[in-house]
Design goal:
Chains A, B: Belongs to the binding-protein-dependent transport system permease family. CysTW subfamily. Chains A, B: Residues 6-210 form the ABC transmembrane type-1 domain. The complex is a heteropentamer, with two copies of chain A, one copy of chain C and two copies of chain D. Chain C is α/β, with parallel strands linked by helices. Chain C contains nine helices and ten strands. Chain C has a five-stranded mixed sheet with strand order 2-1-3-10-4. Chain C has a five-stranded mixed sheet with strand order 7-6-8-5-9. Chain D has two domains: 3-233, Rossmann fold; 236-359, Beta Barrel (OB fold (Dihydrolipoamide Acetyltransferase, E2P)), CATH 2.40.50.100. Classes of the chains: A mainly alpha, C alpha/beta, D alpha+beta. The complex binds adenosine-5'-triphosphate (ATP) (2 copies), molybdate ion and magnesium ion (2 copies). One magnesium ion (MG) binds next to helix 1 of chain D.
Chain lengths: 224, 224, 246, 361, 361
Amino acid sequence: MDWQAIALSVRLALATTAILLVVGVPLAAWLAFSRRRWTVVVEAIVALPLVLPPTVLGFYLLVALGDRSPVGRWWSELTGSPLAFTFNGLLLASVVYSLPFAVQPLMTSFAGVDRRLLEASAVLGRTTAGTVLRVVLPLSRPGVATAAVLTFAHTIGEFGVVLMVGGNIPGETRTVAIAIYDSVQAFEYAAAGRTSLVLLLFSLVVLVSTYALQRKGGPAWPRP
Amino acid sequence: MDWQAIALSVRLALATTAILLVVGVPLAAWLAFSRRRWTVVVEAIVALPLVLPPTVLGFYLLVALGDRSPVGRWWSELTGSPLAFTFNGLLLASVVYSLPFAVQPLMTSFAGVDRRLLEASAVLGRTTAGTVLRVVLPLSRPGVATAAVLTFAHTIGEFGVVLMVGGNIPGETRTVAIAIYDSVQAFEYAAAGRTSLVLLLFSLVVLVSTYALQRKGGPAWPRP
Amino acid sequence: GSEAAGSEGEVRVAVASNLKFAMADIVAEFEDAHPGTTVAASYGSSGAFVQQISNGAPFDVFLSADTGYPEDLVQDGLADTGDVFGYAAGRLVVWAAADSPADPSGGLPALADDAVGTVAIANPEHAPYGTAAQAALESAGVADDIEDKLVLGENIAQTAEFAQSGNADAAVVALSLALSPSMSASGEHSEVPPGSYPRLDQSGVVLPDSANPGGARDLAGFLRSEDGQAILEEHGFAPPEPGEEG
Amino acid sequence: MAAALNARVRRRVLDADLRVPLTPESPVTVLFGPSGSGKTTLLRCVAGLDRPDSGSRVEFDGSPWTAPGTHLPTRRRKVGYLFQDHALFPHLSVAGNVGYGLHGLARRERADRVAEALSSAGAAHLRDTPTRRLSGGEAQRVALARALAPRPRLLLLDEPLSALDSPTRAKLRTELRAILLRLGIPTVVVTHDRVEALALGDRIVVLVGGRVHQMDSVEHVFSRPATAQAAAAVDVENVIPGHVRELSEGLARVLLGRHLVTAVGGHGLTPGDPVLACIRAEDIALETGPAGGHAASPRNHLPATVSAVAPDGPLQRVDLDAGVPLVAFVTRHARDDLELVPGRQVTAAIKAPAVHLIPRP
Amino acid sequence: MAAALNARVRRRVLDADLRVPLTPESPVTVLFGPSGSGKTTLLRCVAGLDRPDSGSRVEFDGSPWTAPGTHLPTRRRKVGYLFQDHALFPHLSVAGNVGYGLHGLARRERADRVAEALSSAGAAHLRDTPTRRLSGGEAQRVALARALAPRPRLLLLDEPLSALDSPTRAKLRTELRAILLRLGIPTVVVTHDRVEALALGDRIVVLVGGRVHQMDSVEHVFSRPATAQAAAAVDVENVIPGHVRELSEGLARVLLGRHLVTAVGGHGLTPGDPVLACIRAEDIALETGPAGGHAASPRNHLPATVSAVAPDGPLQRVDLDAGVPLVAFVTRHARDDLELVPGRQVTAAIKAPAVHLIPRP
Ligand SMILES: Nc1ncnc2c1ncn2[C@@H]1O[C@H](COP(=O)(O)OP(=O)(O)OP(=O)(O)O)[C@@H](O)[C@H]1O
Ligand SMILES: Nc1ncnc2c1ncn2[C@@H]1O[C@H](COP(=O)(O)OP(=O)(O)OP(=O)(O)O)[C@@H](O)[C@H]1O
Ligand code: MOO
Ligand SMILES: [Mg+2]
Ligand SMILES: [Mg+2]
């Protein structure tokens, strides 16, 4: 069992989820509450990374992160290490690729918050940001859970982008998804099966706990 | 430009989205409204396909659908054609893989519908199914849009599962994602770029229209 | 040689992706020579094709990137030994982009140079070109020196992309790729001495469930014909091991 | 045994035992009680929206709705429910809301019933207003129409007219009562308004702290509350502690402060018992001259000093000091005629039947 | 120019022009009008929650809140708003709701202010109740506390007591008025209840069909409505069409049916003008004997027949036929003394100042 790869994947998924919640909340709030017409275009653009095959997206990211691109050079000069084939590069790629999975559910949830509560908050002197933090977010717990779950699970399973940007370096960019893939490619079905099972069980535990936590005190169907 | 592949992808994405809405709505409703504790486990299981790398999931699906598996054989005997390496097999695989993208946003949206409206519907003599159809669904338009958008976009871009289950057969299972991937693999960057651009623009149009439609008469931030 | 009547229709070929550049020319000439027959080529990794064929993929011919995969199929009873045919052997090169600090003319040993940061090879665990590259590095005595510089591509094309995009300073890839218009325009290559790694023999197999066995055999025959071999050589392949034919 | 809604419901604060007769000629039961006394909870349990604690039982016209091991789903109870907060479907039109419960009817008939229900609820003009734009009172009327439209077996109305202005309210309550009588739909209606209770109700149930304190005719409950809590709930203005002095011939003489006051009744009391004397403010007449002539029943006359006069709706509220504090309602006419100003000496005349005694623990 | 809230607001049905003085000694303005007349819309525009149409203007104490090119965001207006449907934050505790607007205060002070506001709103006992479990009336009180807690510059209360039982309501309105006077917070309060308007308001604005029909002292508006619509809104029981016959010395003689009735006033009228005579039911006294003696002002005596008697809250409503239909309110006492039953002949006595004339178009 490639425990190193599993640990790396979990680290990547947690970091991606954390970053996407931090980045996703303001973005989703802006999309949900802006009255401007063209926000629908931004909404659509957020979903666009999904449309490209992951390896192709990964290829473009690879080009964007490489030393020949301004971004890659700027990062290299800043930190002394390249972005491609490093954990940071992987993280960046995962964040870009999973963006829609975080932003979409957040936005849906935010938009569903009762307008009157937003008005009540404004009357009581809170700014939009304060209202999002104190009213919108707490009332969007199911949406936050969905965003976190989709991001986490998707990053664990992500393969194409990671492969392209990461270069399969053990301990640095060799995630469990790649490890399993390699096993399958090498016809080591038993090993692949074992690792998959561990991954599935672990994820099941994470997901069940997230949902159970989120459900506490949540709504339930009226007995009809 | 591989128009055949584009058409195939669009067909696949539309069919997957349609099927997932039909299948996802009852499933999401059940998950959102059931009071049983173990529904969280089902919720988590729905998200599990995400955790496996797509090619690996594709591999397992291939084994499950291939002519050595009972399912594959049963289907073959029933319809006279195999499931794997056909459009139908691709569709089935896409449905499984995109399930969480449809079910999660639907569930979040459903759970957010004001309980009192569900009670009002029950008092007025409607069954749970009737209530879901007449009250929950119409009030969950943003969630339905999100589910549709994520499913559609994800299916367009899906690559690993499709490659594995479909086998890259032109006209039958060669989707545009695979076509672009092939171009990149063959270093035909200009062709890949062109096809990607067409795909992105087309998707942008689809997504923007979906959002614009969904937003009509939707909520907006109170001017604070 | 088979009856002309059997060669009508479509031939579905599963083609290892490293053969892609040669395949277009092969298909064109083959179709010219066999009017009424069309070739539908699916590209992918050889390993994935084996898995798909094991599960009933409707291919007529499988052109693998090595000899092992077709033999696996034979062993699993999914193909007949007699239907396996060698058609070419791959050649290994060191490739670097024009602006790379690496100098490909120095061959593998030059990759140990400190100026070279990252070297891409295909994954030796399952990609034949990766295994060959690993062996060649060992023969050159630099395997340990550059172990920390290695990044692994999933297949040989991806390996090339690492170097081509400037993220890896050099890559050990197939000559067939290095000769492609895009790579030859953007960088230099030098061939790794053929003796320093095990032969990269590539064989194909005509599949027993083929819907068009005639066309399939015609294509296999064409690949081994003089015309076919000329095209393969032009694209960087060596001739197959003599006597491989069953 | 006559048809009835029997409910023995325990849930949270609620511990109520109730038997509402189902008679088409007197269909309306008013549920009255302070905020938080469990009125909504009771209605919800009857509708099956809340599941009461075990041991509870709801039975409608002989068939059990809630019983040990039985819970008829809400949708099969065929009740009409007006929610305290309306709960209109925001995505449906007004007509869509009202017609929502009319599945199974032909399209034409449905449209007729929607129109009929809307006009019954004074909401015919709202037919085409977008539901989200309805004002508070408009939404309430649409909600009433929605509850009426399917002609339910039982109507549960939680403050159906509270958001309306008084002319509209007065008009609607008359019309509502006429409709309920015409259709003979048994109805339980929560209201906080005495006028409404009187105008709508055939009987009234007083719920305080989750318990039923009294059930009787509306007038009776307002003038003769059964318990101190019921007296407070129906807002009896004068509740004065005292002691029974004498009992004779259906009359009781009670000491309130320094006055001996005669009351009709007093069954079950013995001299010395502590009691509460309940007197409605409108039952205290003020006089400045000598006591009037043709009194039909024994009258108490208490000398008192006016301490304050203030308008109270159509009436004038007069606060009096008669040893014990008293509140009287008089008309503006009387105020002017008697020249009621603070400090003025008056006589408070209270008929014996207007003094209602409640045993005090 | 004294401090004032000036609002000229046009939006949807609303087309109102309003000037509310901001005087700490008489802080409360009641907004009165039928359901759908635009009361909520007006409050929302003042709070900045709705943006009125161009040409509108809201100015508070000299500073423009809404004006061409200006729109002070709601959160900077520092108003307190009680929403008609409460809009409590379901995820916060009762204390969290009430303290929500108290950012910037120290923790201790915040807790004190929350406690104070809760007790002002009669909700101190609800401090630890989960917000989702509050009953309708409980939620209303918490919403009131939330609006009060930050001591806003201006309070806008949309039916703050409508969901309460009458004892609680009576208690709260006295306390609320005391608090508003003590803190001197200018307040606009929507109510449908006449008693509440009287008890709370220093002045009243009558809004009908989106337009301001009258603004005056509460008593004045209820007895002397300016327009026919205002009369309907304040539910004047008797509005009788007639014609002016004579005018002399501040008195008008008006023909109502076959009766000549004397009214005080009549400025701006000339003989022959069609008018509406408004008479509050409680201003019609019923007599059976000869006319009383010490009348302070001219009195009209109309012979009439009782057609119906029914309880109406603390009063008895007596329907009369005096050629024109009349409604009178009398006490139970008077009903008994006069033996009022249908068919009985009585005299309706109406003082001249109680007859209020409105020109009829
Ligand atoms: N889930 C709950 N758990 C505990 N107490 C509850 C719960 N739900 C409601 N209550 C309490 O039960 C009491 C009765 O509530 P209910 O809504 O029945 O009152 P009500 O008589 O309808 O009052 P109102 O006239 O204010 O609407 C309230 O004090 C309320 O706080
Ligand atoms: N967006 C809108 N477009 C058109 N009309 C509207 C809109 N919103 C509200 N209205 C109408 O404006 C009128 C005034 O509504 P408002 O809520 O101000 O009434 P209100 O005086 O508060 O009534 P209530 O006492 O019933 O609460 C109503 O008839 C309502 O239907
Ligand atoms: O064509 Mo390969 O087997 O992926 O290097
Ligand atoms: Mg209630
Ligand atoms: Mg309103």
